[in-house]
Queue: 3 jobs
Job 1
Amino acid sequence: MTTAARPTWDTAKGGRGKGEGDLSALSKQYSSRDLPSHTKLKHSDDEDDTAELLAELQRIKKERAQEEAKKEREKKEEEEKIRMENIMTGNPLLNTQNNFKVKRRWDDDVVFKNCAKGEDGKKKEQHFINDTLRSEFHKKFMQKYVK
């Protein structure tokens, strides 16, 4: 194992020139990031903007109240419309729509419907067999491709 990862027991020594031995002495150089910035604060007059802010607040409250009233009105109109529609179509004697057709499936008109091989009007019970030679799949496969 190398000694590169060991801690330093003796602190680093500076050069032997004048002022180089003391590393804690202040340097004459400094970074621009160390300089103070934002040395002046902005002061605003509170009385100038209060009237404008109150007027803006009142305007926003008024707009929100109008928007809420509009939403409430639209909601009531929609509920009334749904209620009237339910009243009109609720009674089948008053409902004049002639849609008494029997609904058919999309595949009712196929030619060979319910013509599965070996179907005798009863479904065979499917159960799992943990033997590949006696499984239903293997039996069907052998009948189809070997015989």
Job 2
Amino acid sequence: MDSSFDSPLLGVPVQNRESWWSRFSRCICCCNRRGVIYNKNNISWKPSHLWARIRDKLHGKRILDKTYTVLLDLYSHKSIEFSIKDCKLSPDGDSVIRDDLEFYIPQLCNFLLFGDSKEAENLLIIILDLCKKSFYFAHRVIWFLNSINFTELEHPIFDIEKLIDEIKFVYKDSRKICLGYSKRIENLLNDFDAYDKDMLIRETLDAIEDYRVNYKNCKIVGFITPQCIPLDPLFIKPKENSFYSTPLFFSSLFKISTNLGSKDSKESKLAFLHSELKSLNSLLPASVYLPFYNENLRNCCVLHIPLDEVHIYDTKESNTFRISIEVFCPYNEINVIERSRAGSFSLVSEISTCSNEIGNFEAREVIEHCKVKKTLTVVDEEKFQNRSFSMISEGVSMAYVQEENGNKYESICEQKEKVKGFSPFGNLKTWNLVNIIVKSGENLRQEQLAMQLITFFRQTFVEKKIHIWLRPYEIIPTHPNCGIIECVPDALSIHTLKSILPANKNSLLDYFYLKFNGPNSQSFKKAQKDFAESLAGYSLVCYILQIKDRHNQNILVDHLGHILHIDFGFMLGNSPGGNLNFESAPFKLTEEFEQLLGGRRSKLFNRYRRLCVEGFKALKDKAEQIIVMLEMMRTGSGSNLPCFLDGENVINEFRDRLIPKPNMNQSEYKKYVNSLIDESLGHWTTTCYDRFQYYMQGIIY
């Protein structure tokens, strides 16, 4: 696995400012574990008694889950050896609540590397033990460590290369070597040594002989273990293979993305990409999984990368491309086969290819959408006048196909149907297709932090039962200047939507009329409602996190009418143009958005206002937790992130936005949030920034 740290980060590190909130101490650490720990550490860190004071304050409010309590105990230098055993290690695929240790890996590892802890040796033992319990957790830790450019930071407590090497060796004691996690397979593996391993594998494969894939003589249908699908010729030992396969797979994608920058034309880039991915395909299928927390996805095994589905993004700053990956879920495959033999095969299994990608919390929406198989095609203005609303697409997606007769946009279900028809793995019952973005040339740790906070915002709204919609997606930095991003299915940028429609009918309202069957249909009213709920969520996100660079390529609309924001390279303390802070409105609220809500005096606009007030109050009630999450990342590995260039001022301003006034009553909340909405509505800097992006980048507004 590539563990080099020679790629520079964007931004310049600054010295952290001292204050009453953040007085720092220094630690001399004499302990050593296989030479992992340095003898001295000069990293500044908040004293433990300040963290303890925060912990006691939050603990008294009884608002903390077990994992967050353990995290604060750690930063307060309290022992977590026993309490951490009660914490959930990995997330539930069926839940939107993230109260697992994996969610807080950035905070855990930041303290492990830079915290002023006298218990560094014990913490290292705990982290290594967690890595042994789950290679999902171990891989996340390795990727986090790998993504930090330590040349711009003072020496951490640990020798990073030795630390990563030590984590890599956890496969020797790994308790989980199978991709398809379940009690049934876990129990089987626990008893694995009681059987002849080769016989067990043969018996398992013989039981599903009729369902084998007839492709390159592979034996991967149904029950998948590393022994069944070695990643030859890279490794010999199966458990070693199992642990290394996924990191090596994404390291290969990183190298491809990096080398892509040496190609001049788009044609040469595409030819190079096809050649490299073809070589990578020769190593597949393999025990490689997608590391997105959705349990339905990361328990799937990577089968193949269809070359015809590759797309290169035209960006100057980074080498970015999108690939589609065929996967299947080995454990579910067993269940499907058994139900099929028993005569109880369910339709639910047939549609799992759509429900798996987004997760159970959106499965119904996706399944409903799969019923529609129409296409949204670019039409010129003259042809547009002769078409009825019903002929415009019912579904749009991230998938983009260039055709001789124009530009075609296909839904995720259409893309799956097309690829599955040509795939040698298409007969697998749990076959699925997932789109991911590989991005190099930019550090994604800041975007990962933004997505962690957005995820926390979302679960706050869910806990408070507030009908505000947010769509977190996975951002995983794997190297200092590279990472992978989950594609949001069935969503297109506002810029793209406007480019599809004719010039005189390209407003969002026109698009909603066309897509949702006119202003009087129930589908249009439902889409309006979804738009309002998502607009409220992202209005709060953009204000509290100060998300900037909000042009129409960074704002998407999905197939149900939700709006969602992407690209969080400018947030908190940094903005485009060398921190000119030109986008001075609290958040982007254009007259076009107002028009889609029915005008500022409409019932729906009032509902939008009410949701913003309720959502802001809910986040204010969790303000201390949110601030602490951010404070934990401001120093150490986060000190050179662009969003923290202004040091502690970033935290102070963040606190002022979340808590503008202590002990606010409901009337004051309402007045404050409505003032933000009124100030944002049609703000002149928002309009000017959209015009600037249009003239400079061609982004339609």
Job 3
Amino acid sequence: MLRFLVLTSFTALVLAELEFQPRYLKNTQGRLNAEVATPNSWPWQVKSSYIHYYHYCGGSLIQRRWVISSARCIDRWRAVQGEHDLSVRSDAEQIIAVHSIHIYPKWSGLSLCFSHDIALVKLSSEAILNSYVQLVSLPSPGQILQHNNPCYSNLPMFSPAPLKQAFAPVVDYQTCSSRGWWGTVINNGMICAGRSEISCYGYLGGPLSCQVDGKYYVHGSLSVTTGSGCDNKEKPPIFTRLSDYTDWINSVILMACSAGGK
């Protein structure tokens, strides 16, 4: 059975129910190395895992019963929400079983093809929004972030280590698709951002949280890490660009609602 643990809190993907800004341990802009996040400071971060806790992927809570993640990660999950440190059980945690999984139709499932690496997961019950668990907003359809736009990504909680955060500025498509960088591996449906530990330890499916006009949006879902060194500037992590999929996301949720579910 797949279940989810909401690691921190969330802000709305399609309809924002709460306005929330992350609480940082300190200002990390300009520092690409990861550091421990303030507890519950990224309230839309979700951890998914197998029933026995051994599988780690991430996701973003966009509505009370809906999570965005990587298509490569959605086998036998559970959702864990509100968690900060695996070594400590907390009243903030919410563990929710999965009701259904919706993979983008053009996802190929091939290990060497990363296009359309996106999935929606419907939870079996609503997440309870509070100081630890909230929703995150999606970007506008088709929106493309500028080079060096400030973003953050999170690193997994390998017990006893708590959740970490890393500054992950955007690398524009022209640069990231050039020779010596990712080249033809990437396309316009992807975002390159960050470097350092994200390249080795990032949560697949985890959010790329970006600040635009003073507000945070989830612009990406982690899809590709290098596996070839933790500080390879020319091989930054690759995220699925969610602004390319907002119509599909909204249609899946609306169809589920019209079928009688929330």
